[in-house]
Amino acid sequence: MKASKVAVLATTAALALGACSSTPGSSAGASGGGGGGTAVKIGIELPMTGGEAPNGVPTANGVALALEKVQVPGFSVSIEQKDDAVNGKHDPNQGAQNMQALASDPQVLFVVGPYNSNVAQAEIPVSNAAGLMQCSPANTAVGLTKGDDGKSLRKTNPDKIAYVRVATTDDNQGAGTADIAANIAGAKTAYVLDDTQTYGVGLSDGFTSAYEKFGGKVLKRDGVPDSTTDFTSYVTNVKSSGAAVVMYGGVTTSGIGLFRKQMAQQGLANIPLVGGDGIVDGAAATASSYLNIAGTDGAPNSYGTVAAIHDIPNPDQFKNDYKAKFNTDPGSYSAPGYACTQIFLAALQAVGASAGGDLAKLREAVRAYVADKSHTYDTVLGKVGFDENGDTTQHTISYYKYDDSAKDWAFLKQRDFTADPVG
Amino acid sequence: MTTATATGPGRVATRLDLGRWTVPVAVAVALVAVYVLLIIGAGPQAQEQFINALTIGGVYALIALGYTMVYGIIELINFAHGDVFMVGSFVSWWLLTTLGFNGSIGDPVVLAAVLALAFLVAMVVMGIVGVVIERLAYRPLRNAPRLAPLITAIGVSFILQNIVFVTISNSIVTSPQVIPNPVLTLGPIQIRAINLFVIVLTVVLMAALHLFINRTRLGRAMRSTAIDREAAQIMGVDINQTIALTFFIGSALAGAAGVVQGLYFGVTKFDIGFQAGLKAFTAAVLGGIGNTTGAAIGGFIIGFIEVLSSVFGYGRWSEAAVFGALVLVLVFRPTGILGQQLGDRA
């Protein structure tokens, strides 16, 4: 009896130690600002661990790189890193808690994040109440900002925008996936599956409405709970429906890689699969990315979109700077993370002197500056501004296809839905 | 513990008075009804969907057997059981990758040897893990109030998850699928080799368990312990050994299900035990907890409910359908479809 209790205690202690020592990927508190000046912080609120690492880590790296490259005289900016992944999966409650913690730290003037739309849904009321500006590099769900859904998230201070995003919305991204399905893959009938989450359902809706304008027809639409591992019957449904393309609205951690793998096992790898930025999360070699899980049989014939501009003004410079610092290529949302940080630093530069060292006033000044829709910013993504809801004025979607020789996503083209709208 | 004891002693909780053929006939009728539904929903793919359901149902059934055996004998809902399944999938992953396999094996002799080894190792290792868990976590609490071992079981579940989370991977792990993937034609039936393998395996394991419980001395010891622990002890049954044996067998079956997970889906993850355990537990309750035949039937019922929801385009409701069916069954038959079979000291 005694021995067994000791053994249990020892195991527990070992686990606790293990948990403590496993710090997130790249949270190294890189500090910009060249020393001296008022110490302020930029919060990073992204999913950093487990299956989310391919999403959060490159995005957070973008922030760190921007802080290194851009300095604001009179301020020393350091990073306050939060992780909203619980057991390796993004978690809205954890996100809201992180946001509370960031808001209660007076030095935090601005937050980059979150990555996932359902996390944003939980965080926007918090940042809105605290008047702390957050900039999401990757959120695309329409209802976060627009219409009555957007208003209901901003209940505390309806007139104060405290959430902006540099990624465009899923009406555009959905149109992008529909454009690929109908015009690049040349498929006029589709089977649409979503992961029942905010982002996945919204993206599939965006796809459905645009696909019909491109002359396509959705034969069947269904959703799978995000803890599913057995997709075999859904794969057989694809066969029954006779669809020429499968569109998936959802993220990799919801199981799409498994779905694609099981498609290949049932001999359906020749049917293309189109997804949004939820599946464009790294090369086949990246552990737990979509391509990695789908495997060598499943990855071919996969298409994806990213809700960001691919042809950024100085791509080589950004890529080289990133590679020099992190020894790897940037991820899909590294540049948007960088852009969010640039926007913060531009605002800090503009209003930094006005607050006279009062951090609360400074936080509000930064928020008001970024929320002002007359301002535009020269960022790594090009010229970016925000509309009255806090959505980016840049409406460009980039298209990618799996390339078998590189074992990675290869850029196809990008489409600006402001200049080139659907229908 | 099984329907074969239906005419046993009177200290058995409510159940149907089943004639010898009632269950087989009911199962046959249900299968025909399901098949008709599948033809309506899936048309030419009805057979394929039927096989999908049998396969996943078999996995649930294998896990459910461990729940129901443990509940039958010590009335503990062993919430760690789903995680035993998960650890089993990692044992098989570790073995196959250590042996250097990363794809299908063409040579049938090598394949058979590798499969036999994988199942043997995973089942023995998980059986031992089950016995160790019982010895360390449950036996000291055997006479404690019912809630204490229940909470302990949840604790063991977290410990197992965290051991894998910290030491192996916090994300999806790709497991080698050593069984080749041809579509076999058996008369009018077209079936992929892996599905055939999983279905045959689950049936063989269940039949072996049934024979063991009903035809061996140790099986009789298990049944008598389930009915009345003290009386069994007086009659010379070694209670500790019998309970340890129950944990060994239940955990070994979960280990087998873990190997199947890797072979069939090609992936595993530290948290798959939660969802699978919940479904299997539901299967056990649906069939009548403590009743091994009921657990097997419950597992297949859940498999069919999931597949039917997806076939009719209500995939997002599949979990609601599974638990809704559980609620319905419990409202009309509180002891499950086949009825509980356990001592009534509760």
List the helices and strands and how they pair.
The complex is a heterodimer of chains A (423) and B (346).
Chain A: H1 2-21, E1 38-46, H2 53-69, E2 75-83, E3 85-86, E4 89-90, H3 92-103, E5 108-112, H4 117-130, E6 133-136, H5 147-153, E7 163-165, H6 170-184, E8 189-194, H7 198-213, E9 217-223, H8 232-241, E10 245-249, H9 256-265, E11 273-275, H10 290-298, E12 302-306, H11 315-326, H12 334-351, H13 359-371, E13 376-379, E14 382-385, E15 396-403, E16 408-416
Parallel strand pairs in A: 1-2, 1-5, 5-6, 6-7, 8-9, 8-10, 10-11, 11-12
Antiparallel strand pairs in A: 3-4, 12-15, 13-14, 15-16
Helix pairs in contact in A: 2-12, 3-4, 6-7, 9-10, 12-13
Chain B: H1 22-42, H2 46-74, H3 81-98, H4 108-138, H5 147-167, E1 173-174, E2 183-186, E3 189-192, H6 193-215, H7 217-227, H8 229-234, H9 239-265, E4 267-268, H10 272-287, H11 292-311, H12 318-332
Antiparallel strand pairs in B: 1-4, 2-3
Helix pairs in contact in B: 1-2, 1-11, 2-6, 2-9, 2-10, 2-11, 3-4, 3-5, 3-9, 3-10, 4-9, 6-7, 6-9, 7-9, 10-11, 10-12, 11-12
